[in-house]
Amino acid sequence: MCGICGAASTSEQPDLDVVLRMVAQLAHRGPDGSGFLRDHGVVLGHCRLSLIDFAGGAQPLGNPDATVWVTFNGEIFNYIELAAELGGLGHRFTTHSDTEVIVHAWEEWGAECFARFNGQWALALWDRRTKQLVLSRDRLGVRPLYIRHGPGRISFASEVKALFVDPSIPRTLDPIGIDQTLTYWSTVAPRTPFLGIEQLPPGTFATFDSDGFRTRRYWQPEFPPRGEEPDQDLETNAAQLRELLIRATRLRFERSDFPVGAYLSGGIDSSITAAVIAHFTDARLNTFSLRFADAEFDEGAHQQLMARRIGTEHSEVVVSRRDIADVFPEVIWHAETPILRSAPAPLFLLSKLVRSSEFKVVVTGEGADEVLGGYDIFKEGRLRDFWARDPDSAVRSRAVELLYPWLERNPGQAPAFARSFFGRELTAHDPGTSHRPRWAAAAAIKSMTTQAVRQALSADVTDGLPPAAAGWDPLSRAQWLEMATLLPGYILASQGDRMLMANSVEGRFPFLDRDVVEFANTLPARHKVFGMDEKFVLKYAFGDLVPHEILDRPKQPYRAPDAAAFFGPGDQPAWMGDVLCEASVRAAGIFEPAQVAGLVLKMRARRGNVGNTDNMRLLAVLSTQLVHDQFIAPHTFALPARLPQPVHAVDLINEKG
Amino acid sequence: MERVLAERRHARQAHADELLENLRMAILIEDVFDVVLTDHQLTASLDADDLRALLPSTID
Q1: Chain A contacts of B31, Cβ < 8 Å?
Q2: Which of A230, A515, A574, A653 is the most exposed place for a label (fewest CB within 10 A)?
Q3: What pLDDT, in 10s, does the model give residues A500-542?
Q4: HSE-up of A130 (CA within 13 Å, CB side)?
Q5: Does B20 touch chain A (CB under 8 A)?
Q6: How far apart are CA A435 and CA A369, in angstroms?
Q7: What ipTM does this complex have?
Q8: Do you find a cis peptide bond into A561, omega within 30 degrees of 0?
Q9: Does B48 touch chain A (CB under 8 A)?
Q10: Distance to chain B for A397, nearest Cα, Å
Q11: Dihedral sign, Cα of residue A593, residue A598, residue A599, residue A605
Q12: Helix intervals (H) in A62-197
């Protein structure tokens, strides 16, 4: 895992000093060393978290004749197989790193190489033969890549804060990016919360040369037409899923020169990945868990049950409400976006525990809910489809009472409200049926925004569904929407890469393995959500490895205290007064100061004990204000730390001979 | 009087649970068979056992 950055221009030489400052700004992503390559019209930068081939993996790295160079963040897990294939085609390798496979694969297959990679990556290739810069990002957006481009020039970096060290790049919030975040919980790629800063969409590569900047998608989630799934047999599908997931987990656990740990959340997904490591590898496993001082959120009993069952060396961090409030500014500094939940903050503290335990890599269960139908939103969609078949039915609406049995205030306790909430915008054949209530609930935050933000309407994300989606099962469309919004924009970013890399820890996600995802997408919907039973085929496939107390417990999403963390009993952190004062709110220009003042009064009166909408409102305001305070407001942007040592320098402009 | 009221509450809850169980099964049935059940089938004509009886022939 690493940080990458760089700049290219068709008309002038990019400033090496600026790129070196960009590298330094990313030092948390790669504290084990740094490097740069300078050539005519381009500078590539890199900082390194060394996991594979410590001696030979310094970057930027080139091919033997120095015509193709790469700066690379991530892992190509099938690099050994690719190196063997490329070796058979006559390519000579001088290192044992996955990085070198990339330059040879580019030489051999050109842009077709990305479809052959099974991994998680963001990379930049410089091809001296064509004077072309190529950027690429993995299929589902595990690794981030941000871009600023204009006529004849481009800059790129793993994080926006690195782009912002270039004083020529303006720092402004994008009202449309904010509008998307206040609807979908994240922006929709290529948009970001910052005006003029794009992210390379997952499954896409881009080229920059004298013909300009172009992007092309090499992969996107595809599903078979409903009823035409290749295999309808649950036994067969479960066996195949088991084989693929075991292979994916072993690849991620065994292909590292340093010890790999595993998260245990207390749920099914991380229990399965940890159990697979324990049963199918010889290594001693260290597991890490997040616990809460608040019993309402704590899953310690299930975590410890699983750790005992598979015999791991188990470590845990207990997070209090005050811990969340204290680290929140640092969390937003790394997340670089408004967020509607405090949930990333405890994950930041968990990765700190991992790093302090001298681990650099963890395997986690992320992605299972999106790939195998685990989220409640898929059940909500199923239920709304059921209701929409006869919207006037006197009894169909009662099905909402089946949702969220674990919630203290569940729909069964307030059926009238639940029917009104889940019955909104109930239109047959709406491709967004599953998501409308959630999007509408989040959008309630916008009643607090300024006129400028309210006017910035973005396109409906369902417009991006491919034409074939009309024939998919509604569950497949809902999965596609999750993979276009929440997964890359929040789960893998604000709760994933950013919170892990803040403490120089790499996450690896077996459920997002290329072969697992492509197989799961071919499954009949009922094998994923069987009526109202989520991840049915997964539970069927791994029932022998996970205790029934975990397997049979109602799905409980990961949650953390929200408003109560900031307005509970006790003093508030000083930073809150700074960002919530009228002058700061007015300067940011996103929320109406009077609305924010009213919200703060309400929070104080109720000590943060408020409903879902107000929880989201508060988190949106706090995080947006912190984004403005840390990224937009400062007259000069935060000065980066020094370059990680040693520095690997490749200067092709001043090369001898 | 209290005892009678408690029994009545229990009977109501049992009825509600039965309806929810019917609905849970009906969601699955409609998904698999691509049919639309009437309110009458959802409540009176088909109980949970009837609905389950439809399953084994198509659900592997």
Answers
A1: 382, 386, 525-526, 531
A2: A574
A3: 999 999 999 999 999 999 999 999 999 999 988 899 999 999 9
A4: 15
A5: yes
A6: 15
A7: 0.77
A8: no
A9: no
A10: 10
A11: positive
A12: 79-88, 98-109, 113-116, 160-163, 175-184
